[in-house]
Design goal:
heterodimer; A: mainly alpha; ABC transporter involved in vitamin B12 uptake, BtuC; two-stranded antiparallel ribbon; 13 helices; 1% strand; B: alpha/beta; Rossmann fold; four-stranded antiparallel β-sheet; 12 strands
Chain lengths: 334, 267
């Protein structure tokens, strides 16, 4: 009977964590929609201007949810896959590819739009895809992808691409510099709704696919041979999960730049609270990561009104100390 | 009836040949120990038998089926593996670890069925893990942890379990506890056990059949009485030993003879 009870209790705990995270998400989103540089009267009737502002803020919140949740899930996947708690979405080199694409489009080509969409995210996504292909090809040995190869290749390709980015930025005109720096530091401003919609579709599809692989991820996080003994086809699973994490990262970075820290800290935060079972960790991380980024973006907008602070600065400033506090508290209980 | 059969298996890592033309078979319900000095190929052979390392040539079958042609889930539903120590770095509970043993039976879109829960319950009961199902695996002692991993193997409902030095990190009381459990599984549960041992005395005490390996080949295969003789052990391990019989079980055991004493140097 103990087994039955324990499994019911843990299932209930997972559901409870999801509901609490979702409630926090809704609260943070509500506050974040209402407050901002422009004041909106709650009691008086909404003007057209108010409606437009609310629409913009809502779009921004959806982007923050998608990007924050997506990066967190990508972090969960990579930490589990590589069995390395220091992994985060940017170690794969994908994000550096996106940065290079963005820099090329702005500084080198100076293009503004592409097929009716703003050009920067499209170029960034192309850069991410190119970086993915390079990393994948280099780390592949006889149809297998040894995880150490993948990690090292990702880090090194990322470093090389980043130095190309710095090279290009250092020779660019001032007018482009600001645009590029803002993008590199992470920015949730909406370029257009079509972009928001496509990023949401891509990221959410990938997160659902990741959730369907959570049992495989559980097994692989114990070690590849352990997973193989349990009946997991490890090479296929690794490739599948690597592609899912890359797609999420590429889409998120293309839309919002390199927002750091979310993909590293949220997975740990969630595991500290609810344990390691990926069947719960993946959905809860998506919601918690979304709520966290919405909150950080809200702070970034409000702290120096009407100016905005880059959201990546806030994610590290808020997330770091809170995480360390939680870590200390937890290790003292044990 | 033959359950596991290896026919002239040869192979290793890259161009380095570790296993040289080994043929070996075992019937269901037996407890086979693989012993031999470091580098003899014990673990490599076990990895080939457990479908992790593809041999360069030869054929391995379980129940007459070529293991490398079986779907990976089908293989895991009849063969389980327990390693000497698993480095779990994420905070899984014991129950979650044991439930992973049901992977070959689970559908990705569905939850655990009544059958899965029952199998896990049985596995936890048999290994006496019910006291800590909800605890995190990293909070347990090494002996308890090993029992959890044996429970996971049992949850796979296998006919064959491979173990790689299952007791090498345990003290003597836990060694006996774990090996009594494994012996019980092979005798009453009719599960075939193939285990690599470093400790010759444990192997001799518990196994029905011992396979002594040396340089990638079988140096001797037989009952503990046949294999644990001072001539064979001295030849393969290149060290002087004394072999006696355990007064309780009648099984042979091995004593070391330090060189300094043999020469009468310090006495």
């Amino acid at each position: 009977m103990q087994v039955r009870e324990a499994s019911q209790i843990s299932r209930k705990r997972g559901r409870k964590a999801f509901i609490i995270a979702a409630a926090i998400l809704v609260m943070v989103a509500a506050v974040s929609v209402y407050f901002g540089a422009a004041k909106i009267g709650l009691l008086s009737a909404l003007t057209d201007m108010d409606k437009r502002i609310l629409g913009l803020r809502a779009g921004r919140i959806l982007l923050a949810l998608t990007v924050g949740g997506g990066l967190s899930v990508a972090g969960v996947i990579l930490q589990g896959l590589m069995r390395n708690p220091l992994c985060e979405p940017y170690v794969l080199g994908i994000s550096s590819g996106a940065a290079l694409g963005a820099v090329i489009s702005t500084i080198v080509l100076g293009v503004q739009s592409f097929l009716g969409l703003s050009a920067l995210p499209i170029w960034a996504f192309l850069g991410a895809v190119a970086a993915f292909i390079v990393v994948y090809r280099i780390s592949e040995v006889n149809g297998r992808i040894p995880i150490q190869n993948l990690l090292l290749t990702g880090v090194i390709v990322g470093a090389v691409l980043s130095s190309v980015v710095i090279f290009l930025v250092s020779f660019s005109d001032k007018e482009y510099l600001h645009t590029v720096m803002w993008w590199l530091l992470g920015n949730l401003q909406i370029f257009d709704m079509k972009l928001l919609l496509s990023v949401m579709v891509i990221v959410i599809t990938a997160v659902v696919l990741a959730a369907l692989n959570s049992r495989e991820l559980n097994a692989i996080s114990l070690g590849e041979e352990e997973a193989a003994h349990l009946g997991v086809d490890i090479e296929k699973t690794k490739k599948r999960l690597f592609i899912i994490a890359s797609v999420i990262t590429g889409a998120a970075v293309s839309a919002a730049g390199m927002i750091g820290f979310v993909g590293l800290i949220v997975p740990h935060f969630v595991r500290l609270l609810i344990g390691a079972n990926h069947r719960a960790v993946i959905p809860v991380s998506f919601i918690a990561g979304g709520a966290f980024l919405i909150f950080c973006d809200f702070i970034a907008r409000m702290v120096m009104v009407p100016a905005e602070v880059p959201v990546g600065v806030i994610t590290a400033l808020c997330g770091g100390p809170f995480f360390l506090y939680l870590l200390r508290k937890r290790s003292r209980i044990r | 009836m033959t359950l596991l059969n290896a026919e002239s298996v040869t192979g290793g890592y890259g161009r380095e040949v570790v296993i040289k033309d080994i043929s070996f078979s075992t019937t269901s319900g037996s407890f086979v120990g693989i012993i031999g000095p470091n580098g003899a190929g014990k673990t490599t052979f076990l990895r080939m038998l457990s479908r992790v390392l593809h041999p360069a040539s030869g054929r391995i079958t379980v129940d007459g089926k070529d293991i490398y042609k079986m779907p990976v889930k089908e293989f895991a539903a009849s063969v389980a593996f327990v390693s000497s120590e698993s480095g779990v770095i994420f905070p899984f509970t014991c129950l979650e670890i044991v439930m992973m043993g049901r992977f070959p039976y689970l559908h990705p879109l569905r939850g655990e069925s009544e059958k899965d829960i029952e199998a896990v319950e049985r596995a936890i009961e048999m290994t006496d893990c019910s006291g800590f199902v909800s605890r995190q695996i990293d909070q347990l002692s090494a002996g308890e942890r090993q029992r959890v991993f044996i429970a996971r193997a049992l949850a796979q409902e296998p006919r064959l379990i491979f173990l790689d030095e299952p007791t090498s990190h345990l003290d003597i009381s836990h060694q006996v506890q774990i090996l009594d459990l494994i012996k019980d599984l092979s005798e009453r549960g009719n599960i075939t056990i193939v285990a690599v041992f470093h400790d010759l005395n444990l192997a001799s005490e518990y196994c029905d059949t011992l396979m002594l390996m040396d340089g990638g080949r079988i140096a001797a295969l037989g009952t503990p009485k046949e294999v644990i003789s001072y001539e064979l052990i001295e030849k393969v391990y290149k060290t002087v030993v004394v072999v006696r019989d355990n007064p309780v079980s009648g099984k042979p055991y091995v004593l070391l003879a330090p060189r300094i004493k043999r020469k009468g140097g310090l006495t």
